[in-house]
Write a structure and sequence with these properties.
five-stranded mixed beta sheet, ANXUR1/2-like, signal, mainly beta, transmembrane receptor protein tyrosine kinase activity, 2 helices, disordered N terminus, binds 2-acetamido-2-deoxy-beta-D-glucopyranose, DH200=94 genomic scaffold, scaffold_4234, five-stranded antiparallel beta sheet, 10 strands
Length: 132
């Protein structure tokens, strides 16, 4: 086991997946983690996948409340799954989720939904950066 550290710094919706989906996957994930940023509860998306909220999650940093804020989408299209897109995390400083994973290649998928989120920030000025 080693620890995959993901450093994230951005001002928008972030969701993380270490996963591969599809009926005949060319890659079978040994670690499969779905995180819904900014959510304090677990939820299921319309496609049936189960997402863990990152509030109080074992993957989240202890000082999460000090360096980031949970926000909610002000608008969500009718066909858009509430999980995971209705919540997001605005990160103000270097931020790390920590995932214990097995050795080997991993896929990291970030989910974004372009809308305004509570907090009154200007999305035109948002950005993100990821280091693995
Ligand atoms: C969410 O699910 C995880 C397991 O996937 C569990 O450890 C955690 O306690 C659950 N959180 C809530 C708020 O129910
Ligand atoms: C969060 O900030 C408060 C106030 O500055 C500080 O007392 C507290 O220790 C911080 N918490 C963590 C986990 O860093
Ligand atoms: C948002 O930021 C852009 C770029 O800095 C600026 O042009 C625009 O006026 C800002 N919008 C608001 C509502 O502040």
């Amino acid at each position: 086991m080693f620890t995959l550290l993901v450093y994230l710094c951005f001002l928008f919706n972030l969701l993380l997946v270490i996963a591969s989906t599809g009926s005949t996957p060319p890659y079978t994930p040994t670690d499969y983690i779905l995180i819904s940023c900014g959510s304090s509860s677990n939820s299921t998306s319309v496609d049936g996948r189960k997402w863990d909220g990152d509030v109080g999650s074992k993957f989240s940093p202890n000082d999460m409340a000090n360096i980031s804020s949970a926000v909610t989408a002000t608008e969500l299209g009718p066909s858009v799954s509430r999980a995971p897109f209705s919540s997001a995390r605005i990160i103000r400083s270097q931020f790390s989720y920590t995932f214990p994973v097995s050795l080997g290649k991993k896929f990291l998928r970030l989910y974004f939904y372009p809308t305004s989120y509570s907090g009154g920030l200007n999305t035109t000025e948002s950005f993100f950066n990821v280091n693995g």
